[in-house]
Backbone:
């Protein structure tokens, strides 16, 4: 009789434990879903209409659609998402011309077939005014293909450090020489930018070249344009 009572106690304890564990898992799931909703609601891009920015991609100075004035506190988080969400970030001067961020160190002869520098008049211009996974991959930038390398490169670009090629070749992008000591943050810490959101059609014109990404012809792509204020 005593053994039966002990068995019932053990069974009841196991039942209580299973119930508590199930409740805890349910609460964690609810907390995660709530956190996802909060994060999504805090992302302004979730609720802003996108307009066609084809003219900006082609070098026009006219942008229509949703705009706001922002500083680095908004721009920096946006940059750290471009390679994860695969959207384009373009920087322009106040007159609408491309704002030079750095000069690519890659070999033009190794650029993917059909690649052109569409933001400058010269298709072989080494100057860069944007962050774009597709463009960087087709230029064979050394940080492409690995999210850790993208982050390392952004860290160095923003702070003015040196990004060393992961290949171990000894080559590097010294952003303090390119942008100045302190990098992009130091140079534009007191500046404001007009932020414009839109979409454009990304067309791949590769002729069988291996680029490391799958580019679908005619694919719609989000773009965020930051125009430096006077």
Residues:
């Amino acid at each position: 009789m005593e053994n039966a009572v002990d068995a019932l106690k053990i069974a009841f304890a196991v039942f209580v434990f299973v119930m508590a564990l199930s409740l805890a898992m349910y609460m964690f799931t609810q907390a995660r879903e709530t956190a996802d909703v909060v994060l999504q609601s805090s992302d302004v891009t979730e609720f802003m209409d996108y307009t066609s920015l084809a003219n900006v991609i082609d070098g026009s100075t006219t942008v229509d659609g949703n705009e706001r004035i922002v500083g680095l506190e908004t721009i920096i988080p946006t940059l750290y998402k471009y390679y994860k969400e695969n959207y384009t970030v373009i920087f322009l001067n106040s007159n609408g011309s491309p704002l030079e961020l750095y000069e690519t160190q890659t070999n033009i002869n190794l650029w993917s077939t059909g690649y052109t520098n569409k933001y400058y008049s010269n298709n072989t211009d080494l100057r860069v005014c944007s962050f774009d996974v597709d463009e960087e991959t087709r230029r064979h930038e050394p940080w492409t293909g690995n999210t850790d390398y993208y982050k390392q490169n952004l860290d160095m670009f923003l702070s003015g450090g040196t990004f060393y090629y992961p290949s171990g070749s000894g080559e590097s992008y010294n952003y303090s020489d390119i942008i100045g000591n302190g990098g992009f943050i130091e140079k534009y810490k007191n500046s404001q930018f007009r932020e414009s959101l839109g979409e454009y059609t990304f067309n791949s014109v590769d002729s069988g070249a291996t680029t490391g990404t799958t580019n679908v012809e005619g694919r719609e792509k989000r773009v965020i344009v930051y125009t430096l204020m006077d």
